[in-house]
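Researcher: Hi, I'm a grad student and pretty new to this. My advisor asked me to get structures for two proteins we've been looking at. I'm not sure of the right format, so I'll just paste the first sequence and hope you can take it from there.
Model: That works fine. Here's the first sequence with its structure tokens right after it:
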Amino acid sequence: MKIGRRRSKQFYIPLNSMSDVAFLLLIFIMLVALINYRREVKIEYPEAKTALRTSDKKNLEIWIDRDGGIYLDGEDASLLGVEREISELYRNAPETRVHIIADRDTPYEKINSVLEIMQVLQYRVVSFVVKNAE
């Protein structure tokens, strides 16, 4: 009795829907690229006649809204939390710049409380963020 050889099946990859998959992948990549990971607090910037640009890399942002609420990089915080974060930052990366971003109508004593923390910790790399008055 003669046993016939079995033929192996030919595998076939359907290419009809490859363009659809590539198009959906392109849309997904474009949407992910548009996501802004920086959290911001809605404030009205004070104006300044002269301003110095700083690098946006390696900085800690302290937001103070018009009601005196304090936010660290967009997350709600207290003065004690600010003090802890800045002291930790000073130990690990002393060249990191602290940006203080306060609303135009924020009472000065709220800003001064953050500045007093900086003064006690002797942190000297501080910037006030303002809108350029043109």
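Researcher: Oh nice, that was easy. Here's the second one.
Model: And its structure:
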Amino acid sequence: MIRFRFAPAKARAAVQWMLHEARPDPLDLHTILKACYFADKEHLNRWGRPIFGARYRAMRYGPVPVEIYEMLKGEPYWLAELAAERYPWSLNGYRVKGENEPPDLDALSETDFEELERGFDRARRMTFDQRTAATHGPDWQKAQLGWMRYEDMIEPDNPRRAEILETLEEISFRMVL
């Protein structure tokens, strides 16, 4: 199974940027989590690596990048990884509100940010039901409400599929995202 080391600095930057873009309105968890999934999957297929390296759980309403979800809920473990005292957002029910602190996008590469913009735009234009339907593809279905596999996120018709799989099977966990 292909696994990556999660990149909490990228996740923080991405979430903070999305919240900054949505100001003054909060965002719902579903929009943020599905934007991350869309961006990660597309980056994986185009560039041969995900952005965040999160573990994805196939949940009833679609894939959930578990570590990003933990961060959104205020999990202190990731604060230690980020050498931070707090997250620049707050969760109230299922809505996340950002603080006025501008996002620091230095952790994201140019291609990371491009895919994040596309993923966020896509997620924001959809209703909850549309996002759910759009994320219940073969990769989600194969997981059967368990852990999703990056191998299944690479599109079957991707002309670089075999090359991406071969490379990631060898070096994925040692990669610095």
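Researcher: Is there anything I should tell my advisor about the second?
Model: You could mention this: The two ends are 18 Å apart (CA to CA).
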